[in-house]
Amino acid sequence: ADILLWREPKIAATLVIGVSLLWFLLEVVEYNFITLVCHASMTSMLLFFIWSTASDFLNWERPIIPVVVLDESSFKELATSFHDRFNQILSKLLDLACGRDPPLFFLTTISLYILSVIGTCINFMNLLFIGFVSMQTLPIMYEMYEDDVDRVASMLMRKMRKLYRKVDSNVLSKIPRGTVKSKKHA
Predict the structure, then answer these.
(1) Residue closest to 110 by CA, chosen among 100, 96, 94
(2) For the segment 166-179, what is each residue's pLDDT rounded down to a tens digit?
(3) Which of 25, 80, 146, 165 could be disulfide-bonded to 31 (CB atoms 3.0-4.6 Å)?
(4) What pLDDT score does 35 carry?
(5) Rounded distance, CA 79 to CA 19, Å?
(6) Cα–Cα distance between 185 and 120 in angstroms, integer?
(7) Is 61 helix (H, G, I), strand (E, B) or coil?
(8) Residue 2: strand, helix, or coil
(9) pTM score over 0.70
């Protein structure tokens, strides 16, 4: 939260510059990701080799490389967490698809449609970059202009509710609905 709200400006700025540089290399220069990783690894290995060799001749301190060992339980915990979260989302989407919450169903459908339209216009890497930049800038902007944003958001919510009531009374209420039967398990 401190990084997103720029309370630690050096870390936040470093993160934004690093991601911007990565985006520039992958999108503008059209560097391949695998090639970039290989070149970065070769460069770091070469720098450590030069540093280690020069430290013998120039009486410098040799580089200290920490040993990083990740245990198996960390990966199992991550996979279990991902699996549980994915099942929750899938269950919620299936509930929505069955018509148990019509307002949320239409909101989800409209959101997915908007996301699909955006997806046809922007490639995935650019979408990730825009998402990251938004994640870094929107919280601090909201903190600075919280009252104005809340006022506009509440006005927009009132208009959306009014529009939904109109669509519900003119269209949705006229759609015949059958009973939702639960699946029997043997």
Answers:
(1) 96
(2) 888 887 667 766 66
(3) 25
(4) 81
(5) 26
(6) 40
(7) coil
(8) coil
(9) no
Interhelix angle 146-170/102-121, rounded to 10 degrees, is 110
Residues of the chain with pLDDT > 70, as a percent, come to 91
Contacts within 8 Å (CB) and 24+ apart, 43-51: none
Instruction: Quote the pLDDT of residue 178.
Output: 63
Main-chain phi, psi angles of 180, to 5 degrees: -90, 120
Under a CB-based contact definition with an 8 Å cutoff, are residues 16 and 136 in contact?
Answer: yes
Q: For residue 6, how many other CB atoms are within 10 A of its CB?
A: 16
C-beta atoms surrounding 129 within 10 Å: 19
Task: Say if CB 27 and CB 125 are below 8 A apart.
Answer: yes
**Residue 180 pLDDT:** 59
Helical axes 102-121 vs 124-144, angle rounded to 10°: 120
pLDDT of residue 158: 93
